[in-house]
Amino acid sequence: MTKNNGGTVFEHHLINSRKMKKAILFVFVLFAALSLTAQDLQKLATKGAVRLFADKDDLTSVLQIIPDATIVEAISADTLFTLIRWGDIEGYVKSDRLTAALPVVTTSQPVAQPVQEAAPVRPEPDVQARQVPTDRFQALVDKYGITLAKPIYQHKVWKGIGSDMARDSWGKPIQINRMYVDRSVEEEWIYSQKYLYFRDGVLVDWGPVK
To answer: Could you read off the pLDDT of 115-155 as tens digits, one per residue?
Structure first.
């Protein structure tokens, strides 16, 4: 009887030991997977010249054209778009145009790179790449001055600005509803989640799309 009790205690101890080992192994594997995911999302490289969008739901809100093989920092990602940081600029790029960044190898002498003829980058139907300035902020400074360029560059709007300034801040709307009230022309610019309301070309109201 004592022998059987001893065998039972030993078996329980062995089962508990196996369960604990499995639990420790699971935690280790989970931690390794999370660490790998964080590393993969930290540094990525562009595949070809890619467009950096201010709003992933508005493909006309192009901020910059990022050159091929540029290293960027990923903030968050989904199946279609990835939120990245490039220098001091944040925006969205298509997820399939990014790949894992290769480690940088330093050598004492410069390594000659083979010359490859890159395929021409064709603009998307709703984006005119030639109209995108190489430096959006500088273009806004030249157009409006440094004081107004800063909030416009940050995609801000306020009452009293004109429709041109609002377009430079938020980009091209998805839809424009125009109404004629007495002698005034009122326009409602519809974006993916918000709207702007103009009276005679001046912004008077905005808010979320209902």
So the answer is: 555 555 554 544 444 444 458 899 999 999 999 999 999 99
Q: What is the pLDDT of residues 164-205, one digit of tens each?
A: 999 999 999 999 999 998 888 999 999 999 999 999 999 999
Q: Please report, for the chain, how many H helices and E strands are present, in that order.
A: 4, 11
Tell me the Ramachandran region of residue 112: left when phi exceeds 0, alpha when psi lies from -120 to 50, beta otherwise. Answer: beta
Q: How far is CA 42 from CA 105, 107, 203, in A?
A: 18, 25, 39
Domains of the chain (ranges, CATH numbers): 136-208 (3.30.1450.10)
Contacts of 71 (CB under 8 A, 6+ apart): 43, 44, 45, 101
The Cα-based distances of 180 to 4, 167, 172, 183, 209 in angstroms read 95, 21, 22, 7, 21
pTM of the predicted structure, to 2 decimals: 0.38
| CA 89/CA 78 separation, integer angstroms | 19
Output the pLDDT for position 72: 87
Residue among 81, 65, 57 nearest 193 (CA):
57
For 193, the token pair is 């989640």
